[in-house]
Amino acid sequence: MKKIMNNVPSLGKGIKDVKVDLPKKEVTVIYDASKNNDENIVKGFATIKVKAEPKKAPAKK
Hints:
Blueprint: H1 2-5, E1 15-21, E2 26-31, H2 38-47
Antiparallel strand pairs: 1-2
């Protein structure tokens, strides 16, 4: 968890919030879509040796 939180800048621009759920082994990244995208964020995780894959948030009602 510290590894991820200490390396948020490596995920790219436009990162607004990062939440780590250790029991689920999930990281939620909220970002500005005009400044970043899923592919860049996955690459950012790869630079800190964390395997990541996009998972879309459920639509808000």
